[in-house]
Design a protein that fits this description.
heterodimer; A: alpha/beta; four-stranded antiparallel β-sheet; about 35% helix; globular; B: about 260 residues; mainly alpha
Chain lengths: ~280, ~260
Amino acid sequence: MKVLPINTQPHNDNLLEIRDLHFSRGGRPVFRGLNVSIPRGSITAIMGPSGTGKTTLLKLIGGQLRPERGQILVDGIDVHRQGLSDLYQLRRRMGMLFQSGALLTDLSVFENVAFPLREHYALPEPLLRTLVLMKLESVGLRGARDLMPSELSGGMARRVALARAIALDPMMIMYDEPFTGLDPITMGVIVSLIKRLNDALGLTSILVSHDVQEASSIADQLFLISDGVVVDSGTPEALGRTTSEWSRQFLEGLPDGPVPFHYPAPDYLADLTEAR
Amino acid sequence: MLGGLQKLGHWGLGVLERLGRGHLFLFRVLMSLGTAVTRPRLVIKELYSVGVLSLLIIAVSGLFVGMVLGYQGYITLVNFGAEEALGSVVALSLVRELGPVITALLFAGRAGSALSAEIGLMKTTEQLSGMEMMAVDPVKRVILPRFVAAFISLPLLAAIFSAVAVMGGYFIGVGLLGVDGGSYWSQMQANVDFYDDVMNGIIKSLVFGFVVAWIAVFEGYDTVPTSEGISRSTTRTVVHSALAVLALDFILTGLMFGDI
């Protein structure tokens, strides 16, 4: 039997530590010395405008991308120093909810949730059925077990994906834009599920989002990212009192401020008269 | 001038980089071959969608190719009073060349493009990323069964293509144009050598199967995750497979029959 990578670091209250992370894509720096610490059992929202690399950060944490410099420690294990086999063992303890749900389109809801269990464990069919139904019940979709992914609404697909993400009983779950494109009722359901599952299963949840209100309502701490670094962090209440102009603009959704309304351009009048 | 050279260099580097990625990918696939043995059900499922579902187009095409060969062979042979040799002409053309080559071209268009599109769409909809995050290796779970199924299917389909085409030639030559049926079969039996002709044809279709399967799964896995990217991948699968099959056919023919 394969032995899981062991945490050789002294016991640490932080499940995830990102230290001096540098990463570029296509010559453009995405992260320039990012530092984030996420305590065990907490819900942490990593926020920032579109294109700041929030999804990229989740892929770096999951070891799907490799940083140029810096360290990502999950439960004390350096993600990018693991061999492929050890990395896969570590991923069994990390769940991820993709924005699209990433359900396997040729499998039913039941089989999608059963997929990681079938792949990793040779469980007897009755036990597997019980486990899958329990996971589906926890997201309220036990009755939808026979539906195909194409028959699900966006919110339902995300809930099935959530049931699948907790199928292997992970220690943490990463949520990629969990609130995007949902109606208010479904969004409320997802917000409540994230909170409920985190508390009931003793998880650590990391969600990347730009939905300030929803993320703030359940997060224990927020990190605001811009230009590849953390520009502000703290509890939602503390960030509500922030004096940083950038943070205020982002949290209050102001159209102009440190992030300008206009894309950099030459002088307007000169531009208009140039053709004459 | 300098700009043109720069573009040429950039293009050349891009081609080399893709070739390198393709070979590393093939290495990963081949290193996972054990999965095909430990989980044969995955391969059998793909054998159905890749092989069985290609049967109809292969059989119908084989029938028409055989009938055309029957016509053309008869028209040429009858001038020399050698129409009894029609069976051997049809069979030799098929087992040596047309069977493996046309099957590979049709297979690339029917199954290869479908494989690329399916894998490409799985990548675009993050299904492959999702598997990775569930600690399931998509190369073992998705790519390898499709690769093995395509590799196994093509030689079998080529054999079926040749058999159906021989029957097509028979219908036209014997049934329509009056060639003696006994001569058709006996000439074929006398002139088609199992090792020199049939085995060489099988080797060709195995090589084509390997190359088409490799190109199809690589193009799908390497697709740019957009709708345009999938479209380009499927096109590239068909074009690159066709070019590779024709070029390899030339090389293999030279190696196998060059000393005649």
